[in-house]
Amino acid sequence: MGDPDFGGFPLARKGHAFEDFHPGQVFEHHWGRTIGAADNALFTTATLAFTPLYFNAEYARAHGHPDVVVHPLLVLCTVGVSRSRT
Questions:
Q1: Residue 49, CB half-sphere, CA atoms under 13 Å: how many?
Q2: CA–CA distance from 65 to each of 1, 3, 37 (Å)?
Q3: Which candidate, 58, 76, 79, places its Cα nearest to that of 67?
Q4: In sequence order, which ranges of the chain are alpha helices (DSSP H)?
């Protein structure tokens, strides 16, 4: 058996590069999920990320946010699971 010729296999482009995204961009898909305060508190506690920005509304407001900030990894995990598999 010889080495396979990988040049004979076409590469299919999947997904997006970082540069393809911009703030406020919305992706419509068939699943819906709203991340609530309880989801954020549970995830932040489970990952031991005790940053006041994720728990304390007054602290978040003092730093320019309208309310507590959702942990970024929770958003990443939710989007990663809910994205289409095609």
A1: 15
A2: 62, 57, 15
A3: 58
A4: 37-46, 57-62, 72-82
Task: Phi first, then psi: give them for residue 21, nearest 5 degrees.
Answer: -95, 150
Q: Is the pTM of this model over 0.85?
A: no
Q: Chain-centre distance of CA 45, in angstroms? A: 18
What sign has the CA pseudo-torsion 70, 71, 72, 73?
Answer: negative
CA distance 39 to 35: 6
| pLDDT (tens digit per residue) in 11-63 | 777 777 888 888 888 877 666 778 888 999 999 999 999 899 998 999 999 99
What is the rounded end-to-end Cα distance, in angstroms, of the chain? 33
Please report how the helices 72-82 and 37-46 are oriented relative to each other, as an axis angle in degrees rounded to 10.
110
The secondary element (H helix, E strand) that includes residue 48 is none
